[in-house]
Every structure is written in C-alpha cells, then in structure tokens.
What we know:
This protein has 15 helices and 23 strands. Helix content is about 35%, strand content about 20%. Strands 2-1-7-4-5 form a five-stranded mixed β-sheet, covered by helices on one side. A five-stranded parallel β-sheet has the order 16-19-15-20-23. Strands 8-9-14-13 form a four-stranded antiparallel β-sheet, covered by helices on one side. It is an alpha+beta fold. The chain folds into three domains: about 5-65, Ubiquitin-like (UB roll) (Roll), CATH 3.10.20.30; about 70-225, Threonyl-tRNA Synthetase, Chain A, domain 2 (2-Layer Sandwich), CATH 3.30.980.10; about 230-545, P-loop containing nucleotide triphosphate hydrolases (Rossmann fold, 3-Layer(aba) Sandwich), CATH 3.40.50.300. A hairpin with a 4-residue loop joins strand 17 and strand 18. The protein starts with 5 loop residues before the first strand and ends in an 8-residue tail after the last helix. One of its GO terms (molecular function) is kinase activity. This is Phosphoribulokinase/uridine kinase domain-containing protein.
Amino acid sequence: MPNLKLIQVTIGEKLIEFAQGTSLQEVLQHLTPHPFPIMAAFVNGELQELTYPLYADSTIQWIDASSETGIRIYKRSLHFVLLAAVTKLFPKHKLKIEHSIGQGNYCELRGEESIGEADLVKIEQEIQAVIDHDLPITRREVSKDDAIKYFQSQERPEKASLLKYKPGDTVSLYSCEPITDDFFGPMVPSTGCLGLFELKYFPPGFIIRVPDKSHPELIPPYQEPKKLSVIFRESERRGELMRVENIAQLNEIVEAGSHNEVIQMAETLHERDLTKIADAICADYRDVKLVLIAGPSSSGKTTFAQRLSIQFRVNGIKPVAISLDDYFVDRANTPTDEFGEMDYENIYALDLELFNRHLSQLIEGKEVRVPKYDFVTGTRSSRTQQVKLEKNQILIVEGIHGLNEILTSTIPKKNKRKIYVSALTPLNIDDCNPISSSDTRLIRRMARDLQFRGSSVEKTLKRWPSVRRGEEKYIFPFQEDADFIFNSALAYELAVLKGLVEPELQKITPPSPEHPEAKRLTRFLQYFTPICADGIPLNSILREFWGGSCFLVH
C-alpha cells in the first residue's frame, strides 16, 4: 500500500501533519476537547462542514456554539431534527417554523387536529431519542431540476418554486430518517452534535428554544413574550392577507408585475398602525407629556418619530423633540465595556440626574435650558437651547434606552408612553426556514451606511457584532415594557435593498474576515427577484435606508 501524502494543518499556533483526505471531524479527534461543541470550521477563510476533507495545506479556525455562525448552524440542524421528529409522529400535519421569539423560534403544526401539551412531550422525547442515537445527517448534491421534482412530489410547492430562483445548477439535500430537505446552509454531521434544547407550549403552537451563544452550556430562563407575540401574529396574518408569506410568493408577484399593490398595502398598514398609536396617546394628552421611542439599530426609529409627529399635529398637539445625545456625560467619565473601550451605549453614559430633572420641570410647565454636547471635545458645550412645554405640546425622546425605566425613573407612568420599534419581518424563506429580523436590519444598515455615512458594507459587517451586543444588553431585555410596539418591517423591502447591497457584498473576498458572512448574505439575497424603488412612497420607512425620504433622516 503506497504511503499517503501528508499535508500541514495550522490550528492557532500549532502546525500538525495529517494524511491527505482527512476530514475536519477526524482532525478534531486528535485534538484536546473544546469547551463548547464544534459546529463547523473556517478552512482558509471559507466556511466548511465537519465532513469536509482536507487535500492541501490548510489553516483551520474552529466554529463553536459560542459564535454567531456556530449557533446559527446549531439552530438550523435542530430545526431539521424537529422536522424529522414531527414527520415521523404526525405525518398528516405540516410544520411551520416562524419568527424568532423567547430565545427560540415559534412553530406551528397545521392539520385537521391541533396539538396539545401531551403531543409536545412526545415530540420532545422523539427529538431527544434522535440526538441520543447520534444519527448521521448526510448531504448529497443533486441537479436543481431533480430537487424541484422531488419537492413537487412531496407536496412542497413553496420549496419547489423557490429553487427556480437559486443560482447554479445543483442543490444540497440533507437526509436524516425519515426526511430529505434543503435547509439553505451548513449542518452538523450527526444528531449527536446537538445537545440542549427545550420545547415550550405556546398555543396555538410552541417555541423551540436553544442555548444563547453567550452561554452555550445552558438554556436561558424563559420570559413569556406576551406583547411581542401579538405583533408577530398580526404580522403573519398580514402576510397571509397580502399573499406574501415566503420569498417564492413575493417573486411570483414581482414577475407578474403586481408588486406595487403589495407596496401600497404594506405602507397603508404602517400608516394605520401609526394612527392607532397616535390616537391612543392623544386620547390621554392631558396626562401624557412624554413619548419615548426605542428600538434596535436600523429599525426605522427616525422616520417613525417624524411620522408620529405629523399624526400628533393632525390631532392638534405640537411635538417637541429632545436628543438624548445632548445628555452624555463628559467623555472622561464615560463607562468602559468588558474590552476597556468607551461604552457610549451604556445607560450610565448619560447624565440621568440632569435629564430627569429637566423632564420633571418641563412636565410641570417650567422652562429649562437643554444642554448641547460637543462631540469633538467630548464635553458639554456652553451653548444651550431654551425649551418650555405649552399645554398643547408633547415631548418626544428617541434613543436606545427609551424602554428602560432607569432613564425616566422620576417621571410617573401616567405622564409617559413607551414605544418599541423594530423590523419583525413577516417573510419566511420557506415553511421551515424563517428570515432573521437581525439580517433584515443588517441589510438596511449596510444600505444606509454605504449611501449616507461614507462607510463600506465591509465596515458595517465588522461593526455589526458590537452593535448586536449592545442591543442584547440594553434594548431586548426591555421589549415587554413597551406600551406600544410598532413593526417597521415591510414584506417587499429585501427585494428593493438587494440591488444596492448585493453587488457590494460580492466585492468582499478572502482574506477579509467578513468574507464568510458576506457570502452567506449574498446567497440569501440571490433568491429575491429585484424590485425597483420608484413605487415606494417618499414617507416610507424604507426611504430612510434607500434614500429619497421627504423627512430629514440623515
């Protein structure tokens, strides 16, 4: 038997020799166990599954469940196992995996009979059995035509239709008894790579919960998302109303030339939501003197605030805006984060005592001198703005801490209303693959930064993990404290933003650390048939990111 050719593999600072053709999974077996489960690896800057064989000298960076990419693979693989379990136990039901909620994803089993808690226990036990048996999840490449025929035979029209828009001639199909499917991304090699999960009954469906990447060793405590779930269900209902529940349906509408109707319906629904919020606040205008608007990055808060102001004016109330940025403490007193960097998103980067004192005085009808912060010197300017609230006026404050009670601790609840704004996308890739709201906001931000902030898509991608950490810390824990939630997502928006963002993503190549994420988003956007922006109203939230807004949003 001839000697096998050896290749050199660099892992961190170690250089190790392996036989040519050794898989990543086999390489792992020769190494010290990792503290968290390994999901995949970057090989020479490209994302590869653990079954990937090495034929040349390579540099490996392991991807575990403590990373965004790793937890995404974990979640995708677990959803695949969920589908296998449901198909075995309830073959006449159709599984829908929908929006992210409650540190997991909301799911429904749709059929003639609804499922109860006892059925959920059976599903949970079946998933655990599949994991315990460490069954292989095998992958094979088939022609796109054969994949389309397969899904048509399985009565999966949304999947068959979507694959028509997939670039290339082949499709990766994954199998784990009793199912074969395409889940639009890498998987773990076997079910034993999965561990923790939880199914939470949430009628009429359930939530499949996973560990958080910050603590992959445990399932986080459950907090029932009562208010958020109402908004998500309304979002799903609107998707059904517009007949735009997945990408394939949107593409078919675009190809039929009917997308302007979808645009107008989506925008009208936004206006209706804005009117309801404004009317509810105006009904209590004698008490309510402060409106706080908060939400994660690129949720459209600025346009929302402008449109809400117009609604107030229609009701005879004049809005007065105050910027939280002017209440920053001096830079020398700014808190630092765990990396020793200035943490401007920390609530204690604000002069809370002065802010609350000014709010109280304004609500009492007194005049205050609002400070002006100088971002060049990092100190408060000598200039001030004189502000006094008249009887028919209301304060509007926009900022990431608006939902946090600490920000306005001295203001009675009857005098303020909190509004949470986020892009809770109603669209799915297909029945079992939801679109991440975070991805929607990231694509919005890339478009905005590129056009209006002189920042490349690559720089936005590099900054995004830090932005997400701030959201997880300072915004998401307070979602349920909102008096109103406004969903700024538009069913058609990704088909518009694709034209601007996709070409820029394609420019990001190895060895850029942002290449794998750029490649993932490029593949995602390739499924959309593009929509021209001409039919988008000038007051649309999407205009904040695309351009051409009638408001001063930049």
